[in-house]
Write a structure and sequence with these properties.
The structure holds 3 protein chains of 3 kinds. Helices cover 29% and strands 26% of the residues of chain A. Chain A has 9 helices and 16 strands. By secondary structure, chain B is of the alpha/beta class. Chain B has 2 domains: 220 residues, Rossmann fold (3-Layer(aba) Sandwich), CATH 3.40.50; 31 residues. In chain B, 29% of the residues lie in helices and 28% in strands. Classes of the chains: A alpha/beta, B alpha/beta, C alpha+beta.
């Protein structure tokens, strides 16, 4: 496909209620510079049902133009409805680049779309730039469990597409006074063209809902916590900080805590403001999942643990004494008894 | 139920080290393993086979001849037959080209094994981490897909898939034929038994070469030249430095120093 | 992990078995997982179930009876790799082979098929010879089996029976002719669900706490005459022939696994543990300790696999088999004591697995004939050549 415009699209993932998820707004922030360099507009693509709030947020967070596809078939994400809608839009407008959040849904739709368009897709990018020589988007992403970074170009096919890791880019400052061109596209997908059916929603057992990706503070335990009871001080610190409990693969594999808590390559990739690693040695797979954190604090009795190489604050000592002491200080500061 | 599981042989990324001087990956001596997510995918298929003894599991792997080892490993834990897709012409393929080759090979294998009802893939491979080949195979074949599956249950031509979403799980219904990509479930793959292991070692594994696909494949869409994405450069990530190490005489004192630093630096 | 000691000219199948068991151990038998079972003195049943499904508990049972049909070299590989992670678990698994071997060596096909099924189906079997007043001195046994018509009636009490509390079937040695001493001993298959079979007290042991050791009581237990293994009066020979077969793999190889684990742990620890600003591995005192651990282990390992190979070749050499058991178990006790020394206070702490292996190690010098008995057997066998 030839690009008809120099526009850069950002797919704004929406909730079932029609709100924009954070990741799309982050990508508007990241996409602005790329769009300007490419000499095109920054366009938000909003697909969903009753998505006024998401359209408004897209404008506020920097889109020049918003293309909206609405319909009840888009209320809850399905591969077929969303891929068909995106494909129809791309056929019509032919942008030069598309950014999609590397969420479960983004990574479900991205390859489906790029394959239908017979174009290149770079997954789970953590850095974005314009390649000076060619003017293509330079997509940079980790591989080999975070051991290696690769910069990838898609020189001959359009659009060039990438999924981008949530939490890596920060949302810009909202500007309520901004306005954008809003285009509503009347595109519908027939029910029989949607080949999957939602039979049942299974919520996690009460108290087990773990939003690691959206958490601002995560307190994680690893092999060093020694057993299921060892997560008690971890949980207390997390509660005192209003944070979420995470875990390393070693702790999950030992059966001490549910997989929903796992951070790292085979668990969740996180980007909190504060990540506190307790008794975690810092296997590369774990580190790959936490590099988006603003501040990393490590508590470990083994001075040589790899976690200290990435920690902003490293405390050498026994987590079972340090963590409760820290919890007590924080409670005192916050006036909780 | 006729099932296919796509397997990739990958270096064990937990064993990869960085050369501290040259800043390159040290791949020597790193063992090759079955991509863990593919092992989960195979376990999902094997669990369906446990309940439906007539079910059949075929394995396919694209890779160099050594990838035969990965197929043998998988034959010991539920696979009935295996095919290796191998050839120089396939080298340098990105995910789009890889998925095209695999989709074409699948059509070829179906001539012998019959049409597959479910094609299982791992969510992603731990070396590339792209999570793209599964959905792209589905697109090439124009099949519905369910990604991030934890488990699948077959009921006639309906497959119920427990899919991981941000808020927990969804049970998704999909008709066969379909593609399912599997993430880490709450169970571990089964171990081989001594007998299944020894039997797997003695099984013939046919190789599908470029020549076998020549009449049905567009050679412009495979290998390096058929790949829309190009790697411009690779580099090792910078190691963050400049952290503070706190090690006071007592743990209590260390905790206090940490707390004071965090407050002073406005981290909390 | 130190791989230099691992390749012993094994066939590809043997290497596959080694990797299979090693991966199983790495996942299921780590100290983190075993510690609670060690604390409570329990068999880790989940792990046992998985091992049974893999066919590890029936490795030496012939294929025609549902087992893997492997030999003593493979049995030794199994024992070594399990022993690397947990001596108690290795003991539990290998005890099945010990119990089955008398039937395999002296039983008829019907008995073999019958007995094998218990193990192949994932159950437990136990070898019941030892009594309170008779361990290695089999001639002092008191359990009796009296023939009444088509039945034998068994009375007696066995103690220190590995798997005694969990077994579905026992291989029981009882006197059919109490006046004839060891020559009056016979071997029987006794099912757990026979009336009069009960389990007595469970031993609260120093080590191998992940295995089960119990008293088993036979109170007027009636079994059909067809449960007699071999002929009446052959019990002592059956037991001794069984030990010749099991000592290298079941005992000797297990000790090699334990020693290898300790060497791996010591090297890793000595590289990161620093004193006076240097890793302790830079001290020659530590280097020599580890080198000596390696020497003893390599030597014992060579003997163990030599003995296993000879058995698979059909050569029964009591001296070699007993030597393998003694060399392995004496070495492990030495290695584990030195390992604790290298780990210092951490070695003495139950935080680390080192102390556990030290406790476990002692049993290998005791069970399946104490090392003193082994030496008696060796000298007796040696002297024959000089007469």
């Amino acid at each position: 496909m030839e690009a008809k415009t120099k526009d850069l699209w950002v797919f704004i993932e929406t909730t079932d209620e029609g709100n924009a998820k954070n990741v799309g707004l982050e990508l508007l922030g990241a996409g602005r510079g790329l769009a300007d360099k490419q000499g095109g507009k920054l366009v938000a693509i909003v697909i969903g049902n009753n998505v006024d709030a998401a359209v408004k947020a897209s404008t506020t967070y920097g889109a020049d133009k918003v293309i909206v596809v609405e319909g009840s078939e888009y209320q809850h994400y399905t591969t077929d409805a969303y891929t068909n809608a995106m494909y129809a839009l791309v056929e019509k407008y032919a942008p030069t680049s598309i950014l999609i959040g590397a969420t479960n849904n983004g990574r479900d739709m991205g390859p489906r779309l790029s394959c239908r368009l017979k174009t290149g897709l770079t997954a789970d990018c953590t850095q974005l730039a314009i390649d000076e020589e060619s003017g293509n988007v330079a997509w940079t992403r980790p591989a080999f469990g975070g051991n290696l970074m690769a910069t990838i170009l898609c020189p001959d096919n359009r659009p060039q597409i990438g999924t981008v890791r949530p939490g890596v880019f920060k949302k810009g400052e909202p500007d309520e006074s901004r306005s954008a061109e809003i285009i509503k596209e009347d595109f519908h997908v027939a029910p029989e063209a949607i080949r999957t059916q939602l039979l049942e929603v299974i919520k996690e057992v009460a108290g087990e809902l773990v939003d690691l990706e959206g958490a601002e503070i995560i307190v994680s335990g690893g092999r060093g916590v020694g057993g299921p009871e060892g997560f008690k001080p971890i949980k207390e610190l997390a509660d005192a900080l209003g944070g979420v409990v995470g875990a390393s693969r070693a702790a999950v594999d030992s059966g001490w805590i549910a997989h929903a808590h796992q951070v790292g390559q085979t668990g969740k990739t996180v980007g909190p403001k504060v990540y506190i690693a307790c008794g975690i040695s810092g296997a590369i797979q774990h580190l790959a999942g936490i590099t988006g954190s603003k501040t990393i604090i490590a508590i470990n009795k083994d001075e040589t643990a790899a976690i200290f190489n990435v920690a902003d604050y490293g405390v050498v000592g026994d987590l079972f004494e340090i963590v409760p002491a820290l919890t007590a200080q924080i409670k005192k500061l916050k006036g909780i008894e | 139920m006729n099932m296919l599981v796509c397997i990739k042989q990958v270096p064990d990324t937990t064993e990869i080290r960085i050369d501290p001087v040259k800043h390159t990956l040290i791949r020597d001596g790193v063992p090759s393993i079955v991509n863990p997510f593919d092992a989960y995918a195979l376990e999902c298929a094997a669990r369906i086979k446990d309940k439906n003894p007539d079910a059949k599991i075929t394995l396919v792997c694209m890779g160099p001849p050594q990838a035969m080892d990965a197929l043998k490993t998988c034959l010991a834990v539920g696979g009935d037959k295996a095919y290796l897709v191998s050839g120089r012409e396939f080298g340098g393929s990105d995910t789009l080209a890889t998925s095209y080759i695999l989709a074409t090979a699948i059509k070829k294998i179906e001539e012998t094994e019959g049409k597959f009802d479910i094609i299982f893939c791992g969510k992603q491979a731990i070396d590339g981490d792209t999570a793209q080949v599964g959905p792209e195979i589905a697109e090439h074949l124009d099949y519905p897909q369910v990604t991030y599956a934890h488990e699948a249950f077959a009921e006639g031509d309906l497959v119920k898939v427990k899919k991981e979403v941000d808020e927990g799980f969804e049970m998704i219904g999909v008709k066969t034929p379909c593609v399912i990509t599997v993430t880490k479930p709450n169970f571990e793959p089964r171990y081989p038994s001594i007998k299944s292991k020894m039997a797997a070692n003695r099984k013939e594994i046919p190789t599908i070469a470029f020549a076998d696909l020549e009449s049905i494949i567009d050679s412009g869409r495979i290998g390096l030249k058929g790949s829309p994405t190009k790697v411009k450069k690779t580099f090792t990530p910078e190691v963050k430095t400049g952290g503070i190490i706190i090690k006071e005489d007592t743990n209590e004192a260390s905790a206090k120093v940490l707390f004071e630093r965090l407050v002073a630096d406005k981290v909390m | 992990m130190n791989n230099t000691v691992l390749d012993f000219g094994f066939t590809p199948d043997q290497k596959d078995l080694q990797m299979m068991v090693r991966e199983f151990g790495e996942k299921e038998l780590t100290w983190e997982k075993m510690r609670e079972f060690d604390d409570r003195g329990e068999i880790p049943m989940e792990a046992y179930k998985k091992a049974a499904e893999m066919g590890l508990t029936a490795i030496t049972i012939p294929e025609e009876f549902g087992g893997a049909g492997m030999g003593q070299v493979e049995n030794a590989i199994l024992s070594e790799e399990l022993g690397y992670w947990n001596g108690g678990f290795a003991t539990t698994v290998l005890a099945n082979g010990l119990a089955f071997d008398p039937v395999l060596l002296f039983g008829n096909d019907e008995q073999k098929a019958y007995y094998a099924k218990y193990i192949v189906d994932g159950g437990f079997a136990a070898f019941a010879l030892t009594e309170a007043n008779a361990g290695s001195d089999a001639g002092a046994l008191r359990t009796t089996a009296v023939k009444e018509g088509d039945e034998y009636v068994i009375n007696g009490c066995k103690c220190f029976i590995t798997n005694g509390g969990v077994a579905d079937v026992y291989t029981v040695f009882a006197l059919t002719d109490p006046d004839a001493g060891a020559r009056g001993l016979s071997c029987f298959i006794v099912e757990r669900d026979r009336k009069g079979v009960s389990v007595g007290k469970e031993e609260d042991k120093l080590g191998i706490r992940t295995s089960n050791t119990c008293e088993v009581i036979f109170d007027n237990v009636r079994i059909p005459a067809k449960n007699l293994v071999g002929q009446e009066g052959k019990g002592f020979k059956i037991a001794m022939t069984t030990f010749d077969l099991t000592r290298p793999a079941a005992v000797g190889a297990g000790t090699i696994g334990g020693a290898r684990f300790l060497i791996d742990q010591c090297v890793q620890y000595a590289m990161v543990r620093t004193t006076f600003g240097q890793p302790i591995l830079t001290n020659q005192a530590i280097q020599f300790k580890i080198a000596d651990m390696e020497i003893g282990t390599q030597a014992a390992r060579a003997l163990v696999y030599r003995a296993a190979e000879m058995l698979d070749a059909g050569v029964v050499d009591t001296t070699i088999a007993a030597s393998a058991k003694v060399a392995g178990s004496d070495n492990l006790l030495k290695v584990s004591a030195e390992a604790i020394q290298i780990f210092g206070g951490n070695g003495y702490s139950r935080e680390y697995p080192i102390a556990t292996i030290y406790r476990d190690a002692k049993i290998y010098q005791i069970y399946e004939g104490t090392n003193e008995i082994q030496r008696m057997v060796i000298i007796k066998s040696m002297l024959k050549a000089y007469m």
